[in-house]
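Below is how a single chain appears once it has passed through the pipeline. First comes the sequence as given, then the structure the pipeline wrote out for it. We keep one example in the README because the format questions we get most often are answered faster by looking than by reading.
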Amino acid sequence: MDFRFYEIWREPEYISKLVDGIFTSVWLTVLAAVLGFSLSILLAVLRRSSKYRFLSWIAAIYIELVRNTPLIVQLFFVAFGLPMLFGYRWPFEASALLALSLNFSAYYAEIVRAGLDNIDNGQVDAYKALALNRLSAFFLIVIPQAIAKVYPSLVSQFVFLFLTTGIISELGIEELTWSGRFIADRTFRDFEVFLTLTLIYVLLALAFKTLFHFGGKRMFPWVDAR
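Resulting structure:
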Protein backbone atom coordinates (compact mmCIF):
# COMPACT_ATOMS: atom_id res chain seq x y z
CA MET A 1 0.00 0.00 0.00
CA ASP A 2 1.03 3.58 -0.64
CA PHE A 3 0.94 5.28 2.75
CA ARG A 4 0.80 9.07 2.66
CA PHE A 5 0.85 10.30 6.22
CA TYR A 6 2.36 13.55 5.00
CA GLU A 7 -1.07 14.39 3.61
CA ILE A 8 -2.17 14.98 7.20
CA TRP A 9 0.78 17.15 8.22
CA ARG A 10 1.28 19.22 5.11
CA GLU A 11 -1.62 21.60 5.82
CA PRO A 12 -1.45 23.83 8.92
CA GLU A 13 -5.26 23.78 8.98
CA TYR A 14 -5.27 20.01 9.55
CA ILE A 15 -2.81 20.27 12.42
CA SER A 16 -4.88 23.05 13.94
CA LYS A 17 -8.04 20.94 13.65
CA LEU A 18 -6.37 18.01 15.41
CA VAL A 19 -5.05 20.17 18.25
CA ASP A 20 -8.43 21.87 18.71
CA GLY A 21 -10.14 18.47 18.57
CA ILE A 22 -7.87 17.08 21.30
CA PHE A 23 -8.53 20.11 23.49
CA THR A 24 -12.32 19.84 23.01
CA SER A 25 -12.37 16.10 23.72
CA VAL A 26 -10.28 16.49 26.86
CA TRP A 27 -12.12 19.43 28.43
CA LEU A 28 -15.55 17.95 27.72
CA THR A 29 -14.54 14.60 29.20
CA VAL A 30 -12.86 16.03 32.29
CA LEU A 31 -15.68 18.45 33.07
CA ALA A 32 -18.31 15.75 32.47
CA ALA A 33 -16.39 13.42 34.78
CA VAL A 34 -16.27 16.03 37.55
CA LEU A 35 -19.99 16.79 37.26
CA GLY A 36 -20.89 13.13 36.86
CA PHE A 37 -18.81 12.07 39.83
CA SER A 38 -20.40 14.73 42.04
CA LEU A 39 -23.85 13.49 41.07
CA SER A 40 -22.79 9.86 41.46
CA ILE A 41 -22.09 10.33 45.18
CA LEU A 42 -25.66 11.52 45.73
CA LEU A 43 -27.01 8.66 43.62
CA ALA A 44 -24.93 6.10 45.51
CA VAL A 45 -26.12 7.40 48.87
CA LEU A 46 -29.75 7.39 47.76
CA ARG A 47 -29.32 3.94 46.24
CA ARG A 48 -28.19 2.58 49.61
CA SER A 49 -30.81 4.43 51.63
CA SER A 50 -33.23 2.28 53.60
CA LYS A 51 -34.97 5.28 55.16
CA TYR A 52 -36.00 6.98 51.91
CA ARG A 53 -37.10 3.98 49.87
CA PHE A 54 -38.90 6.03 47.22
CA LEU A 55 -35.78 8.07 46.47
CA SER A 56 -33.75 4.87 46.45
CA TRP A 57 -36.06 3.43 43.80
CA ILE A 58 -35.84 6.61 41.74
CA ALA A 59 -32.04 6.49 41.87
CA ALA A 60 -32.04 2.79 40.94
CA ILE A 61 -34.36 3.38 37.97
CA TYR A 62 -32.23 6.28 36.75
CA ILE A 63 -29.01 4.28 37.02
CA GLU A 64 -30.42 1.25 35.22
CA LEU A 65 -32.01 3.40 32.52
CA VAL A 66 -28.74 5.17 31.73
CA ARG A 67 -26.58 2.06 31.98
CA ASN A 68 -28.86 0.06 29.69
CA THR A 69 -29.29 2.55 26.86
CA PRO A 70 -26.67 3.53 24.25
CA LEU A 71 -24.82 6.78 24.77
CA ILE A 72 -25.85 7.99 21.32
CA VAL A 73 -29.53 7.61 22.26
CA GLN A 74 -28.93 9.63 25.43
CA LEU A 75 -27.01 12.22 23.41
CA PHE A 76 -29.77 12.69 20.85
CA PHE A 77 -32.44 12.77 23.55
CA VAL A 78 -30.63 15.55 25.41
CA ALA A 79 -29.74 17.46 22.23
CA PHE A 80 -33.08 17.16 20.42
CA GLY A 81 -35.66 15.65 22.78
CA LEU A 82 -35.30 17.91 25.81
CA PRO A 83 -35.46 21.13 23.75
CA MET A 84 -38.77 19.94 22.28
CA LEU A 85 -40.13 19.09 25.72
CA PHE A 86 -39.05 22.27 27.51
CA GLY A 87 -38.85 24.77 24.68
CA TYR A 88 -35.21 25.79 25.05
CA ARG A 89 -32.21 25.64 22.76
CA TRP A 90 -28.71 25.05 24.07
CA PRO A 91 -25.45 24.96 22.13
CA PHE A 92 -24.61 21.40 21.12
CA GLU A 93 -21.50 21.55 23.33
CA ALA A 94 -23.72 22.11 26.37
CA SER A 95 -26.00 19.26 25.33
CA ALA A 96 -23.01 16.95 24.89
CA LEU A 97 -21.66 17.97 28.30
CA LEU A 98 -25.00 17.23 29.96
CA ALA A 99 -25.37 13.87 28.21
CA LEU A 100 -21.83 12.83 29.11
CA SER A 101 -22.27 13.98 32.72
CA LEU A 102 -25.46 11.95 33.12
CA ASN A 103 -23.75 8.95 31.56
CA PHE A 104 -20.72 9.27 33.84
CA SER A 105 -22.93 9.68 36.91
CA ALA A 106 -24.79 6.40 36.41
CA TYR A 107 -21.67 4.30 35.90
CA TYR A 108 -19.77 6.02 38.68
CA ALA A 109 -22.72 5.67 41.08
CA GLU A 110 -22.54 1.88 41.04
CA ILE A 111 -18.77 1.94 41.53
CA VAL A 112 -19.04 4.40 44.43
CA ARG A 113 -21.86 2.33 45.94
CA ALA A 114 -19.59 -0.74 45.87
CA GLY A 115 -16.94 1.28 47.69
CA LEU A 116 -19.40 2.43 50.34
CA ASP A 117 -20.63 -1.14 50.83
CA ASN A 118 -17.06 -2.17 51.66
CA ILE A 119 -16.58 0.37 54.44
CA ASP A 120 -16.36 -1.33 57.81
CA ASN A 121 -19.10 -0.47 60.30
CA GLY A 122 -16.39 0.40 62.79
CA GLN A 123 -15.94 3.68 60.93
CA VAL A 124 -19.20 4.83 62.49
CA ASP A 125 -17.70 4.40 65.95
CA ALA A 126 -14.59 6.26 64.78
CA TYR A 127 -16.40 9.42 63.75
CA LYS A 128 -18.54 9.30 66.91
CA ALA A 129 -15.37 9.13 68.96
CA LEU A 130 -14.07 12.18 67.10
CA ALA A 131 -17.33 14.04 67.84
CA LEU A 132 -18.00 14.61 64.15
CA ASN A 133 -21.51 15.07 62.81
CA ARG A 134 -22.75 12.60 60.21
CA LEU A 135 -22.20 14.91 57.23
CA SER A 136 -18.64 15.80 58.20
CA ALA A 137 -17.85 12.15 58.94
CA PHE A 138 -19.25 11.09 55.58
CA PHE A 139 -17.06 13.46 53.57
CA LEU A 140 -13.96 13.33 55.77
CA ILE A 141 -13.85 9.64 56.73
CA VAL A 142 -16.23 7.46 54.73
CA ILE A 143 -16.01 8.90 51.21
CA PRO A 144 -12.17 9.06 51.02
CA GLN A 145 -11.89 5.42 52.09
CA ALA A 146 -14.67 4.31 49.77
CA ILE A 147 -13.12 6.07 46.80
CA ALA A 148 -9.68 4.67 47.63
CA LYS A 149 -11.11 1.14 47.52
CA VAL A 150 -12.63 1.58 44.05
CA TYR A 151 -10.17 4.12 42.62
CA PRO A 152 -8.77 1.77 39.92
CA SER A 153 -12.31 1.03 38.74
CA LEU A 154 -13.15 4.74 38.61
CA VAL A 155 -10.04 5.40 36.52
CA SER A 156 -10.79 2.53 34.15
CA GLN A 157 -14.37 3.73 33.72
CA PHE A 158 -13.16 7.27 33.03
CA VAL A 159 -10.76 6.09 30.32
CA PHE A 160 -13.42 3.85 28.77
CA LEU A 161 -15.96 6.66 28.63
CA PHE A 162 -13.33 9.05 27.26
CA LEU A 163 -12.75 6.64 24.38
CA THR A 164 -16.48 6.66 23.58
CA THR A 165 -16.79 10.45 23.44
CA GLY A 166 -16.04 10.43 19.72
CA ILE A 167 -19.75 9.80 19.33
CA ILE A 168 -20.50 13.44 20.09
CA SER A 169 -19.08 14.24 16.65
CA GLU A 170 -22.53 13.18 15.41
CA LEU A 171 -23.75 16.56 16.68
CA GLY A 172 -21.11 18.35 14.65
CA ILE A 173 -18.98 19.12 17.69
CA GLU A 174 -15.42 19.63 16.52
CA GLU A 175 -13.74 17.16 18.83
CA LEU A 176 -10.98 14.69 17.92
CA THR A 177 -13.03 12.20 15.90
CA TRP A 178 -14.75 15.03 14.03
CA SER A 179 -11.35 16.49 13.19
CA GLY A 180 -10.21 13.16 11.79
CA ARG A 181 -13.28 12.89 9.61
CA PHE A 182 -12.75 16.48 8.45
CA ILE A 183 -9.21 15.66 7.31
CA ALA A 184 -10.15 12.31 5.77
CA ASP A 185 -12.92 13.88 3.70
CA ARG A 186 -10.41 16.30 2.17
CA THR A 187 -7.38 14.07 1.74
CA PHE A 188 -9.14 10.76 0.93
CA ARG A 189 -6.52 9.09 3.14
CA ASP A 190 -8.91 7.44 5.58
CA PHE A 191 -6.55 4.68 6.66
CA GLU A 192 -3.71 7.05 7.53
CA VAL A 193 -6.03 9.52 9.26
CA PHE A 194 -7.77 6.98 11.46
CA LEU A 195 -4.52 5.20 12.25
CA THR A 196 -3.24 8.57 13.44
CA LEU A 197 -6.41 9.07 15.50
CA THR A 198 -5.93 5.64 17.05
CA LEU A 199 -2.40 6.57 18.12
CA ILE A 200 -3.60 9.89 19.56
CA TYR A 201 -6.39 8.20 21.55
CA VAL A 202 -3.93 5.60 22.88
CA LEU A 203 -1.48 8.31 23.96
CA LEU A 204 -4.24 10.35 25.63
CA ALA A 205 -5.57 7.28 27.44
CA LEU A 206 -2.08 6.44 28.70
CA ALA A 207 -1.57 10.06 29.76
CA PHE A 208 -4.82 10.00 31.75
CA LYS A 209 -3.86 6.70 33.38
CA THR A 210 -0.44 8.07 34.34
CA LEU A 211 -1.90 11.26 35.81
CA PHE A 212 -4.50 9.33 37.79
CA HIS A 213 -1.87 6.86 38.99
CA PHE A 214 0.30 9.56 40.52
CA GLY A 215 -2.76 11.53 41.63
CA GLY A 216 -4.03 8.47 43.46
CA LYS A 217 -0.72 8.11 45.30
CA ARG A 218 -1.03 11.71 46.48
CA MET A 219 -4.71 11.51 47.44
CA PHE A 220 -4.62 8.08 49.09
CA PRO A 221 -1.11 7.62 50.55
CA TRP A 222 -2.37 5.11 53.12
CA VAL A 223 -3.20 2.62 50.35
CA ASP A 224 0.48 2.18 49.49
CA ALA A 225 1.40 2.12 53.15
CA ARG A 226 -0.63 -1.01 53.84
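The CA atoms of residues 36 and 110 lie 12 Å apart.

See the next section for the split statistics.
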